[in-house]
Amino acid sequence: MCGITGWIDFTKVIKHQEHIVSSMTETLKKRGPDDGNVWCGTHALLGHRRLAVIDLVGGKQPMSKQYKNQSFVMVYNGELYNTEELRQELLKRGYTFTTMSDTEVLLTSFIEWREQCIDHLNGIFAFAVWDEQEEVLYAFRDRLGVKPFFYSTKEGVFIFGSEIKSILAHPSTSTQIDWKGLAAILSIGPSRVPGNGVYKGIEELEPGCALKFSKSGLKKWRYWNVQSQKHMHTFDETVEQVRYLVTDSIKRQLVSDVPLCTFLSGGLDSSIITAIAANTYNKEGRTLHTYSIDFEENEQFFEKNEFQTSQDQFWIDKMTDTFKTTHQNITISQQQLVDLLEEAMMTRDLPGMVDIDSSLLVACHIIKDGYTVSLSGECADEVFGGYPWFHQDYNQFPWIRSIDERESFLRKEWQSRLQLKDFMKHAFEEAVKDCPKLDGEEPKEAKQRELFYLNMRYFMQTLLERKDRMSMGASLEVRVPFADHRIVEYAWNIPWEMKNVGNMEKGLLRKAMEGLLPDEVLYRKKNPYPKTYHPQYTKMVQSTLSNLVQRKGSILHELFEKEQLNQLIQSGGASFKVPWFGQLMAGPQLLAYLIQFDRWFENYNIQLVE
């Protein structure tokens, strides 16, 4: 993928201030190590860092194109998966192309269809187009939010970038956090409220949304959302359609001019992708390379629980033997997990999923040594109902737990100021309120629909953000075939009894893939991303956090009760046996989250404001 930046300023001429956008763009060098450029106009500067994947010579950006005495300039982060269909359609309409890149196809699509170009796209993207004659900036983000887009605006000025750090590199911005931002980090974190960048004055263009910035100001709109309607297909027809959509999405995403591999955990989602990719490669006389993640001495210390019921190796071996892939198991040490906590936080610009992030960052660095593109199984659980909480009643975000206990660590005055439970309750109610309803739907089915919407708007965004930042932090492009909007649109209206056929998580997806995977893999119980259970990791985060707490000036002194924080450290988070976030973030991860929180405040010079 790539990194994009921009500065639009109608209050003054900025064409000679290229150095500012160059500095902004340079913060994204890991996203695009192959090339970097800035385009300069009177009131607009656009920056781009490139990770070359398709048309290595012709896809340079920012890209300009003239049409009928008009000039358009675009910066784009993403991939189109229907490039050739679009190219043929545009050729029929009289356009010509000078490159084989999807960048030129996308820019030409905008010239032809303007704001409606988005209806023609299949892909993952965040892009901005500057209309030189009209002096208008248009920006779009893909339907599911796979690719990021942040911005900051005030009267007459609009600053944007792929990551928060690029916006912070502009001299007019600052690292201020108000109480709402702090409440988000300490209540729903590592999630974020959609549209909110946590930093004061920094916002996010939400998935499925677009904007227009001109001398008249900023206009935003939602161009896509799931549409609730009655599902009309029989079960057999549904199985066939799911199989077609998933297979087509994976095959489309195998297109690349650079080496491509897949993540493989032996779970259903990564195995489906690997099987289809391997079969496609085998027909072409090629061998697929696969990667898995494990931890030193994990076999000795693994603890079976309600979320992680088994280790992965047996199923990985089954897959690699069946599909003849060249496989590498990446074994990560406890020291690597701890050492990269700070880098993982800075890759996100916020506290994140701690060692769940740092382990992925390690893996992506290793994969990048041989590959530029990888496919991964994110989003299948959110789309087809793979999580335990799809089988539970709920009246709040079901993946966020222990809010009372976590709030009790705060000093009383901060408990009163932040009101973490109220903040989380409001975020939950707003998310549920936005869910597209279906008139006449049974209450139980309507409740399940709400739960799918919550997962799509919150939990899925957290995982997609993690995958984007950690992979891009290693200059590795990761594609997520289950985030194809056609799959999401179709699955949205499939009744729960079909999705959960056989009373098994993702039962419909399993049924659709019969004959593709070995039965042992096809019917393996859902297992999340692997994590360490080594006591040495707990000891290391205890020691690190203890040292930070003893430092003068730490934000931990300001916010948290000293005695309770020390008890938490000494116990290794023992009271958090059940994860407080998702399926993996238990006691040791809470200590690691506080480490990231402390390092974030200091490294970013965070200023608390009301």
UniProtKB/TrEMBL annotation:
The active site is at C2. Keywords: Amino-acid biosynthesis, Asparagine biosynthesis, ATP-binding, Glutamine amidotransferase, Ligase, Nucleotide-binding. InterPro entries: Asn_synth_AEB, Asn_synthase, ASN_synthetase/amidase, AsnB_N, GATase_2_dom, Ntn_hydrolases_N, Rossmann-like_a/b/a_fold. It holds the Pfam family GATase_7. The record marks E378 as: Important for beta-aspartyl-AMP intermediate formation. Signal peptide: none annotated. Pathway: Amino-acid biosynthesis; L-asparagine biosynthesis; L-asparagine from L-aspartate (L-Gln route): step 1/1. One of its GO terms (biological process) is asparagine biosynthetic process. Residues 2-216 form the Glutamine amidotransferase type-2 domain. The keyword Ligase applies. GO terms for cellular component: cytosol. L-glutamine binds at D102. ATP binds at I293, S376, G377. Its EC number is 6.3.5.4. NCBIfam families: asn_synth_AEB. Belongs to the asparagine synthetase family. This is asparagine synthase (glutamine-hydrolyzing). It comes from Lysinibacillus antri. The gene is asnB.
